[in-house]
Queue: 3 jobs
Job 1
Amino acid sequence: MDMVTPLTAAPHDHPNVAYGRVGVLLINLGTPEALTDQSVRSYLAEFLSDRRVVDYPAILWQPVLRGIILNTRPKKTRAAYGKIWDQETDESPLRRHTREQAEKLRAVLPDGLVVDWAMRYGVPGIAGRLDGMAEEGCDRILLVPLYPQYSATTTGTANDAAYLWAMKQAWQPALRTMPAFHDDPGLIEALVGTCREHIPEGCERIILSFHGLPQRYFRAGDPYHCHCQKTARLLREAMGWDDQFAPTAFQSKFGPEKWLEPSTESLVKAAGEEGLKKIAVITPGFVSDCIETLEEVGIGLAETFTEHGGEELAAIPCLNASDDFIEVMRKLILRELSGWIS
Ligand SMILES: C=CC1=C(C)c2cc3[nH]c(cc4nc(cc5[nH]c(cc1n2)c(C)c5CCC(=O)O)C(CCC(=O)O)=C4C)c(C)c3C=C
Ligand SMILES: [Fe+2]
Ligand SMILES: [Fe+2]
């Protein structure tokens, strides 16, 4: 690798600052630290106070959030996490997969790169991990929000947190951000691989389900909806599906506003009512299994399907730390590090 040797002995009147290294920081959403109401509450408080996520004026929103939502939702959300918590490592699935993705990428990326991971909400936080990278001498850092489709509510806010940290640095590192990779041929090929492996024999419909957003954000210019539609189209084309067999839908609605439609729930109910017995749901907007894929889809919507006459709803696993996904990310990261490493 082409890098300057970190300064070990600075001239006597200079601060001893390490430099010359390149860092890669994977960033995911965030998740409760422990399976307690208090931990879920503080995670939701931070998440739902982010103005990129809920853009109502704070003076109106904070009383609703603190007075109602944070007194009711944590108990329900904790119960949902309880069904999917990783007992082996005592962490949420999202945390486990993100950590494993970073560990595997560190092993396959060039020696000398500093590869780490952080969460936008909760721990390990973005600022703390960037402090660590700076201490290790990273003066060039690639930020990699782990969302194939760009949204201001996810990618945008992850990058914001890094810029906010950079505003306070005496020696601000050069920062690059990973562009959306919703149409990356490697990503589509990896999704094709999971479809071939996991879609059950005799499946009558496959719903391509993405996390939703308020329609208002889409109208204000967030390209997320278009990125989702493109991922869905490329996957359909690669699999030879039409949009009757493989419709796009949006899940996880929160609050009273109109969100992107159709909802995954409405398509699951309709499939049962039409007399379909076996369907699958794939979630190509989530690279890691989490509460929204394992609990909402794998448990909740599977029950909804049987309540409406269906028999089996297969929730297709996310790419997680599979070799295929690590290879997708390795190539994208090397592309984005062009000129920084040789
Ligand atoms: C309040 C509005 C929300 C918006 C807008 C939103 C966008 C959005 N979220 C993801 C990915 C994830 N969201 C997850 C959990 C989650 N999301 C919301 C709300 C909004 N998300 C809430 C309240 C929660 C918490 C769970 C609950 O209380 O039901 C997760 C899972 C985290 C985990 O630990 O498993 C992910 C991942 C995307 C991609 C997105 C917009 C594009
Ligand atoms: Fe969400
Ligand atoms: Fe669009």
Job 2
Amino acid sequence: MRCRLLAPPTAEPGTKDEEANTTHEERIARAIIPVTGTGCASPTALQRSAEQNVDAMSASSSARKFKVIVPCTSSNIGPGFDVVGLSLSLYLTLSVTVDPSASNRAPTLAYTGEGAAEAPLDPYKNLTTRTALYVLRCNGVGSFPHGVSIQVHNEVPFGRGLGSSGAAVIAGILLGDALGKLELPKERLLDHALMIERHPDNVTAALIGGFVGSYLLELSPEETEAKDVPLSEVLPEYPPDAGEEWGKDPPTPPHGIGHFIRFGWAKEIKVIAIIPQFEVSTAKARSALPKQYSLKDLVFNLQRLAVLTTALARSPPDEYLIFQAMQDRVHQPYRKHLIPGLPRILASVTPQSHPGLLGICLSGAGPTILALSLNNQEAIAETICDEFKKENIDCKVRFLEVSTEGAQVVEE
Ligand SMILES: Nc1ncnc2c1ncn2[C@@H]1O[C@H](COP(=O)(O)OP(=O)(O)OP(=O)(O)O)[C@@H](O)[C@H]1O
Ligand SMILES: N[C@@H](CCO)C(=O)O
């Protein structure tokens, strides 16, 4: 088994995003928005030859097998709304076979695990494979290679604030890169991901691994305007018939649109995810946020985030400092109506009531609650589950590790 670890993180990407009221399909549409004003060139000689290369490579070799493994992520960690993400040990895994002797033109998809009943098996509708096709088409390869079959095993629950969509997008980015043998550098992979999921926190942490901070460059007014181009205009729903060409080409992402840095993470800090058994869509949770904030609330969060990123790297961790630094006034207060009992749940465990507790927050857009602790994990989880139970909500508890490696492609 040969492991192709992606290139080490060196730089950064970015854009700003307004995702409220959008579905993932619409977000993909945005991915395809001509942000540079110059889309991929329509199938040129270069594109055709890239496609022929991929097919020729497939045809001349035996079946190729590889895995794409992407961790889940918890973003925000209290005050770091849309800024920080933590990569954790639940994984989305694609087991991919490219068999030149198989005749299927479109990839076949099979799912097990979380979301198996909901995830589309049509590769032109599925978030991961559509993302892969976007990467291929932006890089001169007009279609999937023949004979691709993908077995998905997913441990990341949908719509719970654990970055399932970010993981699906990163899996698609790496899938496209691997199928096209593109070998894009990590920064360029991230550019493509940021065209789809416009807040960088989840996708960056999923790609890079560990505890990561990121920001996006502002789009120009023309680029911002262009983001309303509908999906149907930029990426056809169905593949063309043999010999026909795709319609309009998707725009390539601008280069270096996001920027990131990886922080340290003290090895003593343990992570507990308390996962309520209901979904909150990120789009809905984003639409609950105000358009404007008071200076007081922004300063409240900025002060805490500045302290938090260093405090979580220090050994031994300072319980009081971290607990205070994980307070938030930018997103959690506005999402409380989406998660029954949220203020009470967040107040249910403190370093005083549960020695060893470092902090508690909403994971991503919720409804999962993330607790950081030095010990006492079971008691912390039990108390939070009991609080949810008062609202007639069952929870699953996961004791997780920080996943330091980030997304990987493993050749078999
Ligand atoms: N493995 C997957 N395959 C296909 N689609 C997926 C996959 N994972 C997530 N999705 C899509 O993403 C949706 C969930 O995304 P959403 O942004 O609402 O929540 P999340 O990413 O789990 O949470 P958060 O962004 O708060 O961390 C699912 O309903 C599904 O449409
Ligand atoms: N930072 C994002 C993460 C969800 O994907 C939010 O809280 O809306």
Job 3
Amino acid sequence: KPESILIVYLSRTNNTKVVAEIIQRNVGGKLVALEKKNPYPENYQKIVAQVDRENEKGYLPPLKTNIKDLEKYDIVFIGFPTWDMQMPPPVKTFLKENDLRGKTVIPFNTNAGYGVGQGFDQLRELCSDSKILKGFSVEGGYEKKGVFLAIKGEREAVVEDQVIAWLEEIRLK
Ligand SMILES: Cc1cc2nc3c(=O)[nH]c(=O)nc-3n(C[C@H](O)[C@H](O)[C@H](O)COP(=O)(O)O)c2cc1C
């Protein structure tokens, strides 16, 4: 039986969602968007302040998303934007609440140009009993400057080529 693939992602302005969809186009699998029980504020300054507070306290916001058939997946992609130069709190919740031991876990990320920060290191710590493959990180939007979805049109085609090269490197394609 072919290995079954799950692609879980968090996305606010859809850049990470587009990368998740590119991955799915190329390797298949089930796409799941992570949703928080109480959505974050729409306002950028407000979400930045809330995320800072949550990170300081180590608060894990409850999720609405619940994946019941997690055991059937062998490979789990985890996608998230860089927030506060780290992993967004809801992704921490997901990795704390869901046991990915024995699975192959593959991170991917979009950011405003400052990179993944601590995100992939945090994933490695939270998935210490998983096999972690090399992650993929790419520049996405820059909400602070009014750039929302940046991975579209010609830029999406460029990112798709980068994703395909990465998937070939980690031998998923
Ligand atoms: C609350 C918040 C904090 C952010 N912090 C950072 C950051 O520390 N470094 C960075 O490069 N980008 C940061 N960004 C920008 C996002 O990582 C970037 O726009 C990303 O592509 C958004 O992905 P999405 O469209 O899937 O939501 C932040 C965005 C938000 C909303």
